[in-house]
Amino acid sequence: MIKPYLMFNRECEEAFKLYQEAFDGELLAMQKYGDMPPNPEFRVDERDKDLVLHAHLKLTENGYIMGSDGSRDFKEGQKVCISVELNYEDPAIKAWNILKEGGNVVMDLQPTFFSKLHGSVMDKFGIIWMFTVM
């Protein structure tokens, strides 16, 4: 499944509440950074614990958006990623390897506490692809 993934700088919760109201949407998930299990390699500052780690909103019968707060200031055009959710690792790894050629790895494709694999890569055209293998 492919869904737009919106990147925010400290305003994800506010934006998703607005989108939910505008579309009479159903908020399927809103996890905060403070909900994450402790990880010495990914420390969360106390002031960031209430920021959105992941939000998932159903806008229409078949329309969804996802989003989160990032730790960098996103420029116009960088606030949307293509989120690819797959059930198997092989297709994700194949697409990942092709898209990273001539591009830049934003976050290594690796196991996480919420998925078998997760990572993001900017392709040589400047498009950010976010992969999640469930």
Automatic annotation (TrEMBL):
Superkingdom in the source lineage: Bacteria
PhnB-like domain boundaries: 2-130
InterPro entries according to UniProt: Glyas_Bleomycin-R_OHBP_Dase, PhnB-like
Protein name: VOC family protein
Lineage, opening ranks: Bacteria, Bacillati, Bacillota, Bacilli, Bacillales
